[in-house]
Amino acid sequence: MSEFTLTKTRFVEGVWEGLLTTQNASAVPDVQVSLRDFPVAGVTVTEVAPDASNPGRRWLVSIPVPAEAVGDGVQTFLILDASDDTALGSFTLVAGEALGDDIRAEVELLRAELDMLKRAFRRHCLETA
Asked: In which domain of life is the source organism classified (predicted)?
């Protein structure tokens, strides 16, 4: 298990950012990011000043989303601590028609369940009145 904890801070303008923390003063992160088992280029890990409420070490992790990752389908980025191959986190992009089909199917399912609940509620009201 990794001694680091990664917390997402934001995802803006094609760059995913997170805060990597540890209580071990001598630890140095070796962060690797992969997409479809290929390394993602341009990942930066920059140490930031300690926080008064958290005495450990902290780093800002920035992961640029490559243009080839933007398109139809689901793309999952895996963030690893390369020193022991432990997953620190992940994030997923979902876009295009695949998403539209999934959402439409979910909405249809929700509508069917809502109709079923309405019928059951109306029946219950008639039986108890």
From this structure: Bacteria
Please write the tens of the pLDDT for every residue from 8-64.
999 999 999 999 999 888 888 999 999 988 999 999 999 998 777 777 899 999 999
Instruction: Tell me the C-alpha distance between 46 and 68, whole Å.
Output: 25
What is the token pair recorded at 53? 């409420």
Cα maximum dimension of the chain: 72
Report how far residue 108's alpha carbon sits from residue 80's, in angstroms, rounded to the nearest whole number: 38
Round to whole Å and give the CA distance between 56 and 30: 17
Say if CB 61 and CB 82 are below 8 A apart: no
Q: Global pTM? A: 0.73
